Amino acid sequence: MTDFLPRPFAVEHPEVLSLDLPTLDARPGAVLLARSPFYPGGGGQLPDRGTMAWNGIVRDVVGFEATAEGLWHLIGDEAIPDGTIELRVDHAFRQRMCEQHTVAHLVNSAVYTLFDGALLTGVRMTDTDEFSVDFDLPKVAPEQLRAVENAVNAAIADDRPVRTFDMDYDAAQATAGLFRAKSVAPPRQADGMIRIVDIDGLDRQACGGTHLVSTAKARRIRILKVDNKGRQNRRFRIGSGAA
User: Fold this and answer.
1) Backbone dihedral angles phi then psi of residue 118, each to the nearest 5 degrees
2) 238 pLDDT exceeds 90?
3) Nearest-10 Cα torsion for 106, 107, 110, 113
4) Which residue in 1, 5, 3, 101 sits closest to 48, CA to CA?
5) What whole-number distance in Å separates Cα of residue 61 and Cα of residue 148?
6) What 3-state class would DSSP assign to 118?
7) Judging by DSSP bridges, how do beta strands 30-33 and 25-27 pair with one another?
8) Does the pLDDT at position 185 exceed 90?
9) Phi and psi torsions of 62, nearest 5°
């Protein structure tokens, strides 16, 4: 098995939410496919939800196993998929993940700027309108909290395009601000490159998830609460859809 897993198809083609693909291999409860419209999860982002169908049989996709050959799609019983597999991603759930991931970048950008380069320590996306982002911070004053919230909502209102590009991994590591997490980073690809997400004129950092095409596609947010999760960790609880 290679140390480098292929980049998920969904990362490069987030607009593709359905594919019909031939079976590469199968076992009870799972099928291997060369590519997939499903994002398998990672970096705090939850795996996509949806269905697969074959020969008139329909099952929920409940998990994934990434390999160098492709992506195993898991179902919740011992059926053995075969033939052409019809994959359908839950659009509403994908949209929620793209929104939360994009907003997490905006929160990260505001905190990084307002708190002298404070690093991200975790992201926890959810299937609700609330999620959380953790930072390496000793304390947060009320006026700083309002400043973060205002900066994020201003960025949403600005309708900034969200684009991606590949960059040499070593060059990215040598560029200040491209790696924002304290202990983890998106993996180096087999070609020595890494994916960079660029929110026009505001934020640029390495990331492997799915995002909105523009900040204006996100709803306004409120910072609901900041929890103390240790001497140097603060959890920002974010609510989407603020009035």
Assistant:
1) -60, 135
2) yes
3) -100
4) 101
5) 37
6) coil
7) antiparallel
8) no
9) -115, -5
Classify 79 as helix, strand or coil. Answer: coil
Give the residue carrying structure tokens 């987030």.
Answer: 14
Tens-place pLDDT, residues 135-157: 999 989 999 999 999 999 999 99
Q: Please give the single-letter amino acid code of residue 56.
A: G
Tokens linked to 177: 């601000």
What are 172-184's pLDDT values in tens digits?
999 988 998 877 7
Model confidence, pTM: 0.93
Cα 45 to the center of its chain, rounded Å: 4
Q: Which of 186, 193, 115, 180 is nearest to 148 (CA)?
A: 115
The two structure tokens encoding residue 189: 């690809």
Compute the half-sphere exposure of residue 111: CA atoms within 13 Å on the CB side of its CA. Answer: 28
